[in-house]
């Protein structure tokens, strides 16, 4: 039986790959992002993908997004909190605006979206999948605020897993490492800075390669599947071994 899946940050990268994989498996998918054009490019692949172009940090956005998903497909079974932003700011150059922006997207929005989704998720043994990062488990020089916001998401994953278990809702997370996505371009880094970041990642990745968005999507859909019904509270690294190196 098809389920309804809501995915934020789904216009590109991990969100896009995850949306397409859920749709390929027969689920109804609601994709959310700030830019309408990339969302439309994803939605054209399958009639069961519905796009919502909006800023998840806007006033009342979580409630509106969940309500539209439920109205469109008659319910909600899986929430994937994937949207995230990162700013490269070493200590001494951290600005209040950068802290606020990362907190709003990476932390506050997932909290409020999950809160809005729970009344619907609990009716059908729902699942929340948070997309964290491997560096939340280790640290990331010059992007400490980003790492800290994702570490907070890890803590919420474990806490919500316990709190929502009596409602039949599972909460899990994936922690990607070096993945081939546009996040570094959106970060505003120069080509030289992106190359230096990738070199640092490769130095700390035992498998010595960059992962694909599809490999993370495999982990997300797997953790969200009914077959993983006894798994909750876990943060699964998808990072080529970086967190254990």
Kindly estimate the percentage of residues that lie in beta strands according to DSSP. 5-15%
The stretches of 5 or more residues where confidence is low (pLDDT under 50) are none
Strand line-up across the major sheet: 3-2-1-4-5-6-7
For the biggest sheet, the summary is: 7 strands, parallel
- Helix and strand pattern: EHEHEHEHEHEHHHE
Count, helices:
8
Provide a descriptive summary of the structure in words.
With about 240 residues, this protein is of the alpha/beta class. It is about 45% helix and about 15% strand. It contains eight helices and seven strands, in the order E-H-E-H-E-H-E-H-E-H-E-H-H-H-E. The protein has a seven-stranded parallel beta sheet, with helices on both faces. Helix 1 links the parallel strand 1 and strand 2.
Quick overview of this protein structure:
The protein is α/β, with parallel strands linked by helices. The protein has helices at 13-24, 36-43, 61-73, 96-121, 144-164, 183-186, 191-203, 213-224; strands at 4-8, 28-33, 49-53, 78-81, 127-131, 170-176, 235-238. Strand 5 (127-131), helix 5 and strand 6 form a beta-alpha-beta unit.
Topology diagram in text:
Layout: E1 4-8, H1 13-24, E2 28-33, H2 36-43, E3 49-53, H3 61-73, E4 78-81, H4 96-121, E5 127-131, H5 144-164, E6 170-176, H6 183-186, H7 191-203, H8 213-224, E7 235-238
Which keywords apply here?
245 residues; 8 helices; single chain; globular
